[in-house]
User: Fold these one by one.
Assistant:
Number 1:
Amino acid sequence: MDRPETLDRYLGLLGLPARRPSLDALAELTATHLMRIPFENVSKLFYRHDALRRGLPDLSRFLDGIEGYHFGGTCYANNFHFCQLLAHLGYRVTLCGADMNAPDVHIVSVVTLDGRRYLVDVGYGAPFLEPLPLDGTEDREIVWGAYRYVLRPADAGQRPRLDLYRDGVLKHGYVLNPAARRIEEFADIIAESFAERATFMNALLISRFGKDRSTMLRNLTLISSEGSAWYLREITEADQLPGIIEREFGMPRDIVRKALDGVRLTAQP
C-alpha cells in the first residue's frame, strides 16, 4: 500500500474530500477521475526510451505526471492506482485481471458494497462514469456517439464480458477474471507493452469523459461531445497533434512533440 499522505495528495488532485464508502461517493470518485485524469499513452511514449521510467510508474511519479503535464495513463497505471486509492478510503476493492486478445492484458477494480459487486474501470478509455453492477441478468449498454459498450452477464464461471462496438462493428472487449490479483503478477505484461510492436507504441489514444463534455483523440481523429452536440475532425497532418493535444488536454506541446518523435501511427487503438 502506498503512503497515506501520498494517497491524500491523489484525492486532492481529484478535488474531492474523503467520504465514507457508499455508492454515491464511489460514483463521484469514478466520474471525477474520468473527467480530470485522462486515459492516455502519451506518457508511455514519452518515457519509452528511459530505462528507469519504463514500466508502471509508482504513485508519486503518476501524480507528478498528472500535476506537471496533465498526464494520466493506460489501464495499468490508472486502474491500479485508483484501486489503491479506493482501498485507502475504506472500500472493499479487488484488483482483477481481464482477458482481451491474450490472458490478463487488462486490469480492473471490483468493488463490493452492501453485498453487491461493481465493475470500476477508469483505464479503458471509455465513459464508465459510474460503477457497473456485476450481478445483472441482462445486457447493460452505454452509448457514446458511434461507440457502444455492452456489459454482458457473468457466465457459469462468474466471468462477465464487456464488448466494444464502433459504428456497429465489434472491435474488442474483455472478459473479467474474478480472482484477486497482485500488481506484481502483471510485470511481464507491462514490460511487453513497451515493446516496439506493442499497440501503444504505434498508436495514439487520449480520452477524457465528463457528464457535459467529453473528448477522444484516436490517432488522427478528434471526437468531442458537448451536451447533445457532436464534433468530429480528421487531422490531416501529424505535426498538428502537439498543438491540438495541448489545447484539448492541457499536455505541453513540447512534451507531446518529444513523445511522438519517431512514432508512426499504424496501430488501431
Number 2:
Amino acid sequence: MTPRRGRAARRALVGLVAVAATAVGLAWPAQATVTATYTVWTWNVAGWAIHRGSVTDALVPTISSSIQDSGAQLVALNEVCEDQYRALVASLRAAGWPDDPTDFARFEPHGPDYCGGQAFGVAIFSRAPLGAANRYVLSSDGTPEGRRLLCALLASRPHLRF
C-alpha cells in the first residue's frame, strides 16, 4: 500500500469510528448527572467510658448544639449509650433540627449491657428523612462487644445511603 492510500484508509477508518460512536451515543438515552454535597459530622462519644451513660452531664447539649451550629446534614455517633441517643433525638427534635422530626434517626446496638445495663452502639441522624436501614454484623476485632455497621437510605434519594 502506498503512503497516500494508507493515510486515506486511516482517515476513512477514523471517520467510520467517529460516525459509529456518534450514532451509538445518540441511540443511548440521555442521563442527567446529579451532584450533591453533604456536610457530615461524626464523633466517637465514649458514652460509657467517659460519661458513664449520663444524659444529665454536658454531653447531650454539647452534641446537639454542635450539630446545629455545624450545618451538618448527616451525623454519625460511635460508642453511644441508648439513653444518650434517645436524649439527643429529643434535643434535636425540640430544636427543630430535622426536616422531619418523625424519621431522622437510627440506632444499632453493639451489645446489650456495655452502658451499665443499657444498649451501647452506633447512631446516625439525618437532617432529611431517612428510609429503610441496613444493619450489618462486622467481623470480630478481638474485643468482647460485637461491632455493627448501620446504614440508612435517604428517603428523597433512595440510591444514596448514609
Number 3:
Amino acid sequence: MRLFILAVAAVFVSAPAAMAQSPASGSKPTLDFGFYRARIEPMFLVKRPGNIRCAECHERGAGALRFQPLEAGGAGWSEENSRKNFTAVSAFVVPGDPKTSRLLQHPLERDSGGDPFHGGGKHWSADDAEYRTLAAWVRGETRSAPRTVARIIQTNAAGDDSHVIDPVTNTVVGVINDIRIPHGITSAPDGSRVYISNEALHTLDAVDARSLSVIARVPLSGRPNNVAISKDGRKVYVGIAQAPGALDVIDTIALKNVKTVPVTGAIHNVYVTPDGKFAVAGSIPASAISIVDTSTDQMVRTIKMTAGVRPMAFDTNPDGSTRRIFVQLSNYHGFAVVDFASGQEVARIEHPPIPGVHAHNDGLQAAPAHGLGVTPDGKQLWSTSKVYGYAYVHSLPDLKEIARVFVGQHPEWVTFSPDGRRIYIAAAGDNQTFVVDTSTFKEVARIPVGQVPKRNGTVMLQTN
C-alpha cells in the first residue's frame, strides 16, 4: 500500500490562485469538519519511513500552510486548534473539485496529473487510498459510521514490525513498522487506533488504524511489557517491567500518561477482567498478582503465588463477574487455578509428556508453558507448551483435557478470532503464526510473519 507523507503543500505558495478556481458545474459543497478531524488531520501526524511528519514542517508554516502548535508530546491538537487547522487547510482546497485543489495536486505524482514540484516530495498516485480519502472530503462527503473489520495483529519480539492478519483469508494484509521490540497490543473499541508498547523507547505507541502508521508515542515511567484497555476505551493500562514496577495509566483522548499506580513487583502482563471492573497485573520477580480497581485506579489487593506470574486468563460466573484466574508460572509446565474472590489457589494442572515427541529444554526462559487463553464462548482453555510445541486444550468449567495440537516451536501467545472458531498461536521458533480450528482441533494455516513472534491480539480496525 502506497503511503503519503502529507508534508502537504510544503511549498503551498499560491493558495489564492487555487481558490479562484471553481468546480466545472453545480454549487460548491461544504467541507465537513467532522470528516476532516477523523480522517484527514491524522494523516498530518503519521511518521513514514524516510520522512518526518507533515506537522513538523507545517507547524512552523512551511510553504504558507501553518498548523497550530501540537499538544504536549506531539500527539495531536485540541478541538479548538483542530478547527483553526481546518480553516488553514481549507484555503488550499476548491470544494467540489479535487483536481484543482492544491492540497491534493501538489504532492500528487506528475504521471497522475500532479504539479511539477512539491518541496515535500511526491507521495501518491490518484489510485492511492489516502488520495481517494482526501478527494472524498473535497467533494463534500461527511463523516459516516465507520466500517470495521476484524484483524489479528502479531508482534515480532526481535524486530521492528508487527503483522496484520485477515482472519477470513489467513493472510498478511498489512504491516505496522517503526516500533522496535513491540510487546503488548490492544485497540480502541471503535477501531480507530491500535496501541503497542515499545520496549526500545519506553513508550506506548498509538497507531492509526487506516494507515497503520505511528501517530504518537506516549512516554512511560519505565520499560513496558504487556498492555490492556478499559471497557470504555478511555484508558490503556501498561505493565512496567522495570523495577520497582507499576501500572501506567494512559488517557487515550489526551494521549498522556496520567497516573502511575504502585503495584507489587515489576509487571510482566496486565489484563482487564471480562466485566471491566479490575486490572489484573502479574509479577515474575515478586511472584504476585496485583488487582487494581479500574474505577479508582487504586490497588485493592495482592494475591501471592509460589512462583513468578506469567500469562493469565479468566472465566466468569453467570452474572459476568470474574470466577477464576488461570495462571502460568515460572518453571512450571502447566497452569494454576486461583479463585478470584478468595485469592486462594484451588488447583494445579501439569501438562503430561507427549509420547514420541522430543522435549526441548533450551531457551525456555524459565517459562515451559507460556500462552494461555479462554475461547470467547467460555468453553475451552488453551495452554501452550514450549517444551513439546503443543497446545493442551481443557474443557470449561470442569478442566478436563480434551485435545492436544501441535502448534510449532516455542509457542508463546494465543488469541482467537472474534467468533472463537479459530485460535492464532505465535510460534516464536518458526517465525510463523499457527491457525487451528477450535472445534476440530485441526491445523488450518501457517502464516509467515517476522522475527521471533510472541504477543498477539485480536482487534477491530476502521476501514473507512
Number 4:
Amino acid sequence: MDTLADRFESHRPHLRAVAYRMLGSPNEADDAVQEAWLRTSRADTTTVDNLGGWLTTVVARVCLDMLRSRKSRREDPLPATDRIDDGTRPDRELQLADSIGVAMLVVLEMLAPAERIAFVLHDMFDLPFDDIAPIVGRSPEAARQLASRARRRVHGASISDADRERQRIVVEAFLAASRDGDFEALLALLDPEVVLRADPNAVATAASRPGAPLLAPSLRGAQAVANTFNGRARGAQRALVDGLAGAAWAPGGVVKGVFAFTVENGKIIAVDVITEAEHLADLDVVL
C-alpha cells in the first residue's frame, strides 16, 4: 500500500512546476515543495479525495507566503532551455512549459503576489476560481478580477506598439458606438463569445444610476454585451489601464470605475468593469 510520502512523491514534478511558475526560481521552487511536504506530513489527509488538487493548494499557499515576504533578493530565472518536464504532463501543460521562458518570468515579476498566484493557477493550471479564492483570501469574483488584471498586464507587456494602436482604435470605436447607440457597429467590434465581467459594486452602482449600462456579474455573447452598452456609457472617458486602451468613469478627475478591454485579432473578447476600491487601487489608470 502506498504511503503518504510515496503519493506525495508521485505529485512532486507537478508541484515543482507550479511552484516554479509562481516563484521564478528553481531553488525557491524546491524549497516551496519541501515546505509543502512538511505541512502535508503534519496534516490529516484521510478525508482528502483529490490529493493532487489538495497539494496544489498547499504549495500555492506556501508560494504566496514566499512572494509576500520577499525583500530585495531576487534569484536568476531558470534559463529558457532548462525547462521543467517530467514527461508525464498533458499537451497543454507541455506547451505552457515551452512558452514560459525568461521573458514570461520577467513579466510575472511585475505582478503583485495575489495576482501572480491567481493568474498562474487559473491560466496555466486550470484551477477554478472557487478553489483559488481561499488561497488568496478573496471571493471567487475578486480572484477572477486578480487573474484578469494579471492577464492584461502580461498581454500588455508582450504586445507591440502597432498592436497597442490597433487596440486603441477598436476600443475608441466601441465607446463611440456605445454612446451613439449604433448596435450593428457594436456587434462588429465584439467577438461572438465575448465575456463581460463586472464586480458586485459595479452591478449595484450601475443599477442605481440613470443612463449607466445595466450590468450583470457575468455575460457571454456579442448580442448580450452589445445590448448592455448600446446607447450607454456616456459618462466614460478614454483612459490607459495598465498601459492598454480602456475607459474610466472619473467624476471630478477621481477614478470611480474602470472598463478594461481585452482585444485579439481586432475583436473585443473580454470587458472587465471594476469599481471596488481595493481593485482600483491596484490599477495603473491614466486619464
